[in-house]
Every structure is written in structure tokens, then in C-alpha cells.
Amino acid sequence: MSRLFPLISLLCYASICSGVFYSTTLHRREYFPVLVEPLNGSALFSLQMHSSLPNERLRKREIHAQDKSYAVELFANTVEYWIDIGLGQPPQTFSVQVDTGSALLAVPNVECGLTCSHYHNEYDSSLSNTSYTIPCASTSCSQNTCYMNGKDCKFNITYGDGSSLGGFLVEDTLSFPGISSLSSLVTFGSIAVEYPPGSFQSRRVDGILGMAYADSRMTCLPNCATPVLDVLVSEGKVENVFSLDLNSVSYGVTDGGTLTLGRLDSYTHVRNGSADISWISITQQTYYVVQSRDLIIDNTSLWDDSEGSGLTVVDSGTTCLILRPYLYNRIKQYMQEHYCHLPGVCGSQNIFDYGRCLNGTLYNDTTISLFPNISITLDTVTAVIQPKYYMQKLGNDHNKGYCFGIISAGEGIGSQINILGDVFMKGFYTIFDRANSKIGLIGDPGTLSPTPYPPDLPLWAIIFICVISALFLVLLIAGAVVLVRSHLRSMREERKTAGYTPLSREVSLSDVTEPEMSSVHVLLDRETPQREKIVEKKERSNTQKERSSKKEKTRSKRRETDGMGESDNLLQNTDQL
After folding, report:
1. Which residue(s) pair with 261 in the sheet?
2. Angle 514-576/459-500 helices, nearest 10 degrees?
3. Which residues on neighbouring strands pair with residue 133, listed in sequence order?
4. How many other CB atoms are found less than 10 A from the CB of residue 194?
5. Which residue from 68, 164, 240, 325 lies 20 to 30 Å from 363 (Cα-Cα)?
6. Whole-number Å distance between alpha carbons of 537 and 38
7. Nearest to 282 by CA among 290, 294, 270, 271
8. pLDDT in tens, 345-362
9. 305 in helix, strand or coil?
10. Where is average pLDDT lowest: 138-147, 240-249, 518-527?
11. Whole-prediction pTM
């Protein structure tokens, strides 16, 4: 008889982590599959979609302040991580998923009707003394963007799994249980429509708390709502930093870790006593976008620069590690070539197939540790993803399994982007330092290492380098041409000079052996014709010069004779006179 219990949506496969990136945000909805107990001790079992969960609520735990920051306790199941907040005065309590892949705070409204799940808490503005529904006439509401009732300022948003929300914007007091100093007026989305109906969140979670940047593409939908963290920072209540420490959850609902608002004075206590922080630059301030450089298994790089974009998003709202299709296929190919001896890697049904997991009654953590580490280089830091995180352990000790938590992105824009979801983040204490546009990672020993990489240059610098290189190449070619021509000219001059050089060697026949004499005769015989021609040419030239000189002398004598004759005639004429 089959035992059924809720498990992770490793089927972030279908809708969750399908990689469809056409939406406004990165948030992936997670579904709850059910483990079907294998027959006859099968090594693999299937995951089937199941939407029901126990209705009981977790007992509320107070949030506590620490140092100059505020540590907010996370709750978690196998799919998502959330905190409890209050909205209104007096506060109405809601559980909201902490999502770094979106920027809007949204909770269901009592007017949501049949499209919303009635297992959720719903916001009722009539119960709050500080509630203010933003009207269409407000200057903060764009023209012609009224909600269907014709008087309220509307919002709508579509998430990465295709689910969408609609409703109107409300301003009310946000509070965190136990921390009065963090109370503040915020604008949030009051959900009046969910599509598909009831698809937005599980029964455990009411709404969503977006922690991404206040980018117009994420918060003006079509009207702008300032994200919660930006409000707290602008009021000076916290620094522009927050951190997430996600615990691994294999079954049920339990302590999910910590959300820390603000900057800690020391991080030595957060992960095995380590205070070493590896920093990664944020390249785009929309989502938390970083640059991937490499993906490695067993010192073998699976990366291909010719595939283009290495854009990667760190997203707590996604359960799985989502990779571009070519990277996912290369991981699958490499593991099936080198790790086929491990259970579930090869065969007609394997862990790479949709919804297939290892039977946890036949295999244990020791078996999973035999799977390889997967390293991903982000900016100048290489982070190791251990198999205990990407082979997700699901279920309890009586009925458990291990599911492959890495999937391929779908078609469209999302296929060009990698998403580091909870599978990645569970292995590291993650610091989102928005003030300095960087993400810090603290991990177990040996899981983080610096990886020098040439910095990305701006376009103008690349053009400048190309132009300088081209000019240098032209000068190099021109110099080579000049040197060649000079060398050829020198060779011609040497040949000419060698041709006019007289044979002036004196050879003593008594000192020359017969072989040498033969060589000398050969050389002399070779030089004699050329020498005779030169001598003949010189004699001809000298003869011409002598003839020219004689002619010139003759002319001079004639001129002199003619001059004397004229003088005599002149004297005779003078005497006669």
C-alpha cells in the first residue's frame, strides 16, 4: 500500500524551473509532488504532482534583533522559505516568501474571491486604522490605469512560471513581530485576482516579499511601488545590506534559517566559524545578476565561450539550479560517461529524466557522496556545489529519496540565463551588499576559492586597443619592407663593387700545393674573362678621352692663331693711318 507525503517540487521541472523568462520577475512557483513508493525494491521512483498539504499553522516565533542588524527567522518546507510579517494597525499576520527574484510585496485581499486559495490569510483594509487604498486620481498612479472598479490604482505582475496576479495598490503599516523599530508605511499589492486560480502560493504561504532592486520593470506594474527594503533603507532603519542563510529541509516544515536585515559587525559565527568572505560583483541592478565564467566537474571544464552570455541570477524564489540547455546537457553527458557505475545515472530511466529520483531505502548519504562536486566560477570566485545539495534528500527516514536538483532552462529569453536557486544557496551564507553592488559568500572549508580572471573591458577600451594594435601591425610591416629593400640594395652594391675589384693577390708558387694550384688556376680562369672585359672597357674609355683632349688642343691653337692674325691686320691698318 502506497504511502503518500508532500515532497519538494523537484518539479520545479515543469512549471517552477522551466526557465521561461518572458515574465516580469524571476520568481518560480513550486509545486508539491508526491513520492510513489517503489514496487519490488526498484532503484528509482517517480514524482507525481500533489497539491494538498496539512492545514495546521506553524507556531509563531518572535524575530530578534542582533547588533546593528535584525535577524528574522525563516521557516521552510522542501520548496520555499518564508517569514512572518504584520500589515495594518492592529497587525494582520501573513507568511510571505522571501524572493530575491522579484521586488513587490503582495498578499491576498478579502475581495479575491474564488480565484484565490481560501487556505491563505487575506488582507482586510477595514480592520486597519492606517490603511489607505491609493486612488486612480493620485499623482502616483499613472493615467488610465484604474482597477476594474474604476476608482483604485491597479497593479498586475506575471511570474516566471506563467502565474499572474492582479489587484490594486494599498498603503499600510508593515511590522515585524518583536521589532517595533522596523515598523514603517509601505505600498504593497493587494491581490484581487490570481491566474490560474489558486496557483500563486502553497497553503503554507500567503504572499511574497520581493527583495530585488527598485527597477521600473519590476515595480511599476504599471504603477510604481517602492520595495520594502528600499523604504527601510531610505528611513535609515537598516543599512542597504541583507543576508540569507538557508537550512536544508527534507521533510515537513521546520526552521529554515535566517534572514538578516542590515550588516553584521562580524560574520565569524554564521558558517562553521569562518569569517572569510568571497565577493562577487553584481553586474546589473535589477535582479541580483552576476557573471558566470566556467562550470567544472573533475577539473574538466564544460564551459563554451562561443555560446555567449554567462549572465547568472541569484534567486531565493527558485528551488532548483537552472542551467542553460547546453550546460545541462554537458553535465548529463559527462556523468553518464564517467559515473555510470553510480545508481540512477544511466539506463532507460535515470535521474535526468523528468521526475525520477533515487530510492532512499536502497541508497543513503554515503552513496550520494560518491557523486562529483560541481564547481561554478562566478566573476573571480569558484564555488563548489556539493552532491548533498544538488542530490536533494526528500522525505523522512521511513520513506525518502534523492532527486537531481539541477534542470535545464526552457526556451525563450530564459534559456540564455543561469539561475542559482536554493540548491546553490543552501551551501553558502549569502550576503547581498546592495550598497557596494556585490554578493558575498561564506561556505564550508574548501568550497570557495579565488579564480583570477581578466576583467571585462568597456567597449571604448576594446576599440582603442584594437586601433593601437592595428597601427602597430602597420608600422611593423612597413619597417620589415624597409629592411628588406635596404638589404637588397646593399646586396646589389656589393655585387657591383665586387665586379670592379682588381685581382691583386700575389701567389708564391713555391708555397702552393698541386690541389691548391688547381683551385687557383680555376679561380684565375674564371676571373680572366671578366678582367679582360674590364681592361678593354677602360682602354676604350682612355682612348676616347685622349682623342677628345687632342681635339680640344687643336681647337685652342686655331683660336690662338686666328687671334694673332687679327692683331697683325689691326697694326698694319694703324701704321697706314
Report:
1. 70, 242
2. 80
3. 170
4. 23
5. 325
6. 112
7. 290
8. 998 888 988 667 888 777
9. helix
10. 518-527
11. 0.71
